[in-house]
Specification:
Layout lengths: L1 E5 L9 H15 L3 E8 L6 E3 L2 E8 L6 E3 L4 H10 L3 E4 L4 H13 L3 E4 L9 H4 L4 H18 L3 E4 L2 H10 L6 E3 L16 H11 L6 E6 L8 H6 L1 H7 L3 E6 L5 H10 L6 E5 L6 H7 L2 E4 L8 H8 L4 E4 L2 H4 L9 E3 L2 H13 L1 H16 L3 H18 L3 H15 L8
Parallel strand pairs: 1-2, 1-6, 2-4, 6-7, 7-8, 8-9, 10-11, 10-13, 11-12, 13-14, 14-15
Antiparallel strand pairs: 3-4, 4-5
């Protein structure tokens, strides 16, 4: 099958969506499919095509480092026509996503969409608290139009996102829950150079005896990092040798640095800044526990990364994390400030529990491999194509599958 993945973010840009798309590409290719990516070019205002990845000219929009492309770039259309795609899978509702919808209709190619982001949680970046109710209604209208009316099938990464569409937005269509995949081998402790960890600890001014609490992700209001900082003095009362490392960048970093100073934690909380993609596994490796208080995740890939690194996760009890974590088995949930501090202390003092959770966490994370992710997404692709009203296209697709399964050479259109 020839598959086109359309996304506004893709490595080297790092966020949950770009990681998800990369994992899907790798998983589908492992299953023997041809995969192409259409994304923005964040290096220059030009087209670039390399190894099946087409980057379209774009410009910054001044919001969370995202970029916007034209919604109908003709040069890109000419290139995509040559790919002879069987399916289009969009991973954004914006410029590249609009382009995916247009060419899906123009070229009569089925369109699957993954809804990655709970946009209602991000409205304040634009409205600053004004017209909140009206803005949420507008987001609902646009979401329904882009994720219901203009696509063939809809995928979401969690039950929480499915409930948004089914219970709140009242959509009638099928909604498939398929958690994003992750290459857990990147985070295996045996794959991390111990000398690099020693050097990183020196760079961060950490001691061997420090108990390291880690957060990785965007530094923004919706991630509730202020909760982690506000409660760290309580953690220190029980674990005097504790240190917190906050890895990432975002609009709230200055305010949070000021908050840490106000709480007298300037020498206890380290803001490490944005880490290169290749360095992120090192931070997981050096920590003793990973924490998150965010309730706006659609899945929370950093939690999966920490679990892949065999690290205990202490997470706020939220539907996004309940998909991955079984409490007291492969992670720990907290419900309030007291239980947050208590769970971190439990990890610190109870070696048996810590070791059991670390062991089980890796087993759980391995279930979300790119291969398994791709297999589940592929079932949706097959359903879309089986429903396709273009009889000729359906027959050609079925012949290709029969030819491939019978051991024939790779099909060429």
């Amino acid at each position: 099958m020839r598959i086109g993945l359309f996304t506004d973010t893709y490595p080297p840009f790092i966020n949950g969506v770009s990681t998800s798309v990369l994992m899907l590409k790798q998983g589908l290719e492992k299953l023997g499919h041809e995969v192409y990516v259409v994304t923005v070019n964040d290096e220059s205002f030009s087209y670039k095509e390399e190894d099946g990845v087409l980057k379209i000219p774009s410009f910054p929009i001044g919001l969370m480092n995202f970029r916007q492309s034209g919604i109908y770039p003709l040069k890109a259309l000419k290139i995509i026509k040559k790919w002879k795609l069987d399916i289009i899978h969009s991973h954004t509702e914006f410029s590249i996503g609009t382009f995916a919808r247009l060419i899906s209709k123009q070229l009569n190619i089925p369109l699957v969409h993954t809804y990655h982001t709970m946009y209602e949680e991000y409205i304040y970046y634009i409205t600053k608290g004004y017209f909140d109710s009206a803005s949420k209604k507008l987001v609902e209208y646009l979401t329904l139009f882009l994720c219901d009316k203009t696509i063939d099938e809809l995928i979401v990464p969690t039950e929480k996102a499915k409930e948004l569409f089914k219970d709140k937005y009242k959509v009638k269509r099928d909604v498939y829950v398929i958690p994003s995949g992750i290459d857990t081998t990147r985070f295996y402790k045996e794959n991390i150079d111990k000398n690099e960890i020693i050097n990183l600890k020196k760079d961060l001014g950490l001691k061997k005896t420090d108990f390291i609490v880690l957060y990785v992700g965007r530094i923004a209001k919706e991630k509730s990092i202020d909760f982690l900082i506000n409660n760290f003095n309580s953690v220190l009362k029980q674990i005097p040798k504790a240190k917190m490392i906050i890895v990432g960048d975002g609009p709230d970093i200055k305010d949070l640095i000021d908050l840490a100073k106000k709480e007298g934690l300037a020498n206890k909380i380290i803001f490490a800044g944005k880490a290169p993609w290749t360095d992120v596994p090192k931070y997981y490796s050096l920590c003793d526990v990973f924490v998150t208080a965010s309730k706006t995740e659609t899945q929370g890939l950093t939690v999966m990364e920490a679990m892949g690194a065999s690290k205990p996760v202490v997470a706020i009890r939220d539907e996004s994390f309940e998909l991955m974590i079984t409490d007291k088995k492969d992670g720990l949930f907290f419900d309030d400030e007291k239980s947050y501090v208590d769970m971190i202390y439990e990890v610190y003092k109870n070696k048996k529990l810590r070791d059991e959770i670390s062991f089980n966490a890796r087993l759980t994370a391995d279930k979300y491999s790119p291969y398994n992710y791709a297999k589940n997404v592929l079932k949706v692709y097959e359903k879309v194509i089986s429903k396709d009203t273009n009889v000729v296209k359906k027959v050609v697709h079925n012949v290709k599958n029969i030819f491939t399964k019978s051991g024939g050479k790779k099909w060429k259109n």
